[in-house]
Design goal:
Elements lengths: L6 H15 L1 H13 L6 H22 L2 H14 L9 H20 L3 H6 L5 H14 L3 H16 L4 H23 L9 H27 L13 H33 L1 H37 L3 H28 L1 H8 L3 H16 L1 H17 L2 H25 L4 H32 L2
Helix pairs in contact: 1-9, 1-12, 2-3, 2-9, 2-10, 2-12, 3-7, 3-11, 3-12, 4-8, 4-11, 4-12, 4-16, 5-8, 7-10, 8-10, 9-10, 11-12, 11-17, 11-18, 12-13, 12-15, 12-16, 13-15, 13-16, 13-18, 14-15, 15-18, 16-18, 17-18
Length: 444
């Protein structure tokens, strides 16, 4: 089976994936932008959104890895012309991840206050964290359901329907954020931070419903779970385990960054919230081409077309770096307006402007890391990703953060450590990829 890796074909997959991918950070960025401009306690509310978003991102990324594992398996079967043999797998995956999500809600909800005290939140910020989380967490199962459906579509080399679903959810969230946070006269009362949480929850439910419609109407993939479990469930769970360990390392990085920033003060955690959410946005923009790499690499591996696989890696590396440079240039060109989009607090803005240039300078290196990260997911090489992130987190990020904390670099310490962390994640993956597949091409 011939697989095109022309710019046109890659972009046909990447651009819808890009639009779909940025919906996730836009949900959080919208909450941050709307809440950060309320008249009452805006800085404390913005800080709370940042802390809760960090914790929810950890939960979503732990179980949301099912999207990558499922896409990898489905795309490999597609490349091997044996898709019918894996049609019942998505429903079983959805059952597994949604069951775990309900268990997580049951385990975290009673301890919400303790969880966010662990993030160094206190007083009014802690109260806002509790209010926001206890509403938004109920969107967790719907988010995971939607991500699993997205993984199925990615495996089928289809990014159009996920784009439509994500756009609908994002637009709904923006409209509801404005209406529920600020209120609408005597018709809708202003709900402050709780309004932002309800807006996200409703959007997540809507996306899950639309995802169900498209999967059932546009594919032959059933949603009714049939037992016994598919033989690939064992490989799927193995991938999930490696990605789970990897995600724990990733979230150790995010937890330490959030906790350290919170301890610095409310202006610093608010500035960190803006910076890290913009970093997430950049990551998800680049993830459009990264997602195309994951889909195509799995298909090429299934068809054993190693020569085209190597060419794919080289092409995507060039495209990703160009996108990263463009994002950095746009950020530098709009340096001041971007900050004021999220807050008018001069103390927060001062802290944000001090570190925003680091976020922008990271973008080309992030492109390398995210693109090869996705390629390795498409190949099913989750163990490699696990080991590399453990090294980057515990032998790079943690020591750099600790050293710069001693030197009293404050927010500079967090974002400089993040820069070192992303460098440690990127270049080794490029080397491992070429070392693995070049011999296979040469021996043909």
């Amino acid at each position: 089976m011939s697989t095109s890796i022309s710019l046109k074909h890659i972009s046909k997959l990447a651009i819808p994936a890009l639009i779909a991918g940025i919906s996730e950070p836009i949900l959080s960025l919208t909450d941050a932008a709307i809440v950060g401009n309320v008249r009452i306690n805006a800085t404390e509310a913005l800080a709370a959104v940042g802390i809760v978003t960090s914790f929810l991102s950890m939960l979503i990324w732990v179980l949301g890895q099912s999207r990558s594992a499922l896409a990898s398996i489905v795309s490999q079967y597609l490349g091997a012309n044996s898709l019918d043999n894996v049609k019942n797998l998505p429903a079983q995956v959805i059952l597994i991840v949604t069951t775990f999500s309900l268990l997580i809600i049951a385990c975290t909800y009673p301890f919400t206050t303790s969880i966010f005290k662990f993030y160094n939140a206190s007083d009014l910020i802690l109260g806002y964290c509790v209010d926001y989380y206890r509403i938004r967490v109920f969107g967790f199962p719907f988010t995971l359901f939607t991500m699993a459906v997205f993984g199925t579509f990615r495996g089928l080399q289809n990014t159009f329907y996920p784009m439509v679903i994500a756009l609908l959810g994002t637009i709904t969230n923006i409209i509801l954020d404005v209406l529920l946070v600020y209120g609408l006269g005597d018709i809708i009362p202003a709900m402050h931070i709780r309004g932002a949480a309800y807006a996200s929850l409703i959007s997540q439910v809507l996306m899950a419903l639309v995802a169900t419609y498209y999967l059932l109407k546009k594919t032959d993939i059933p949603l009714w779970t049939k037992l016994p479990f598919h033989p690939e469930i064992k490989r799927f769970l193995g991938m999930i385990f490696n990605l789970f360990v990897r995600t724990l390392a990733l979230n150790t990085t995010l937890y330490l960054g959030t906790s350290y920033s919170t301890a610095l003060g409310k202006s610093q955690i608010a500035a960190y919230t803006i910076g890290i959410n913009l970093w997430f946005l950049g990551a998800f923009i680049i993830d459009g081409y990264a997602a195309a790499g994951g889909m195509l690499s799995g298909k090429l591996l299934g068809s054993k077309d190693y020569h085209t696989l190597l060419k794919l890696g080289d092409k995507l590396m060039k495209y990703g770096v160009v996108i990263g440079v463009i994002l950095a240039l746009i950020g530098f060109g709009l340096y001041d307006p971007i900050g004021r989009l999220f807050t008018q607090d001069e103390n927060v803005l001062r802290e944000f402007y001090n570190i925003f240039w680091i976020v922008l300078a990271m973008q080309p290196i992030c492109a390398l890391a995210f693109i090869y990260d996705s390629i390795f997911k498409g190949l099913g090489r989750m163990k490699t990703l696990r080991n590399l992130l453990l090294i980057a987190t515990f032998l790079v990020f943690v020591p750099v953060l600790y050293l710069l904390h001693i030197l009293e670099w404050q927010l500079y310490a967090v974002f400089t450590a993040l820069f070192a962390w992303i460098v440690a994640r990127s270049f080794p993956l490029v080397y491992i990829f070429k070392r693995t597949f070049k011999p296979l091409v040469e021996n043909v």
